[in-house]
Every structure is written in structure tokens, then in C-alpha cells.
Fold this sequence. Notes:
By secondary structure, the chain is an alpha/beta fold. The chain has helices spanning 53-56, 59-66, 74-82, 148-152, 171-181, 201-211; strands at residues 4-9, 12-17, 20-24, 45-47, 69-73, 88-91, 96-98, 103-108, 125-131, 134-138, 156-162, 185-189, 215-216, 224-226. The protein is built from 6 helices and 14 strands. The strands form 2 sheets. Strands 6-5-4-3-2-1-14 form a 7-stranded mixed sheet, with helices on one face. The protein has a 7-stranded mixed sheet with strand order 7-8-9-10-11-12-13. A hairpin with a 2-residue loop joins strand 9 and strand 10 (134-138).
Amino acid sequence: MTTSVKWLGHSAFQVITGGKSILIDPFFNGNPAAQISAGDVAADVILVTHGHGDHVGDTVEIAKRTGALVISNFEIITWFQKQGVENAHPMHIGGSHRFDFATVKLTIAHHGSELPDGSYGGNPTGIILKIADGNIYFAGDTGLFYDMKLIGEENIAVAVLPIGDNFTMGPEDSIKAIKLLEPQTVIPAHYNTWPLIDQDAAAWGDRVATETSAKPAVLQVGDEYIL
């Protein structure tokens, strides 16, 4: 089995594993970094880290079109169900569940989670996808926290970390995060979508390569990393 991780812009990713298309935070419409629309993407599963509009994105539209299983925290799932999403599975921080495509575990993240209409979105989360090809950690929107060291004990093959700064940790703190997580490979996210979060990802990658034990994988939108 081969697993691929494709960057779709901002914090939107597509993981293909075992013939399943898994979308993470599918924000396309209104996303200046996106190269595809919500109507074009295939989805069997959608995972949402928190309630902000640039992460909830087009989940409702995609889920209704494809029938994809939507997974998020309890509060966000309840909100999705009120929007007409029928195929949904609620989880919460620290919980794991084994699905037919992977085992999903939700982790803490330090951020907000208000939903687009102002509804309460519960606590933000990170996501660990436990797949035969290797465990993938999507940190979601978060600042640096020392418990990343515990997340690293999950044997992370690929860590997807925000580096945009201002709303999340920036390059400096992400280097510290990588040292705590000790992943094999790290992919940057949540940067260069708008000027406020512009970063030099190539320079960041050089720092990862020289200051940590991880291999940087700086993707262009539409590029994929193969586990």
C-alpha cells in the first residue's frame, strides 16, 4: 500500500491511502491559494481540526455531494448535522477510533474554534492518522506546546505543521516543535495564503535540515509527498 499526502493550499490536504481519499480542512472557495474548487475534489472522508472558516471551508458542500464521512470534535459535528450533513462521526481530544481507512486520534491544539456563524466550536484539535505506511500528524492551527513531545512518542512519520506566524506558530517555534516531535519528515502549512502569513518556506526548509533530525518536504500547491 502506498500513501500520498497532497497539499491543496493553506491547510487543506488530501491523503490517499488504501484507495480512499481523505480531505483535511477542505477550504477551497475563497481560498486564494487553492487551484481546485470544492466541486472538483473527490472525498471519502473529511477531517476538520477546528471551527474557523478557513478550515471548516467547504466541508458541508463536499459532504453533501460525495456522501463522505465527516469526522471532527463533537460540537463541530453537531453543527455540521444542523447544516444537513448526514454521514458524521463525533470524537474529542485524546480519543481514538479505528475506521476502515485508518485509526484516527485527536490531540490538543492551542487556538480558537468559533464556527463561521458564531456558534461554539468546542476545542481545536490536531489529528494523528495511524496508517500502515506510517503515522501522519496534522497539527492544525496551534501555537507551540511542550506536550508535542508526547505526540512524538506516537512514532510520527510525517508531521504537517503551521509556519505562518501571527495566527499560529511561526518558523522559529516550528523548529522547536520539530525537535519535540522528532518526525521523519515535516511539511509546512498555513502560510503564504495572504500577506499577513507570508513566509520563506525554502529558508525554513534549510533550517529544518540543519537544525533538526527531520527531513523537510516543502511542497508547492498540488504537489504530493509519498510515504
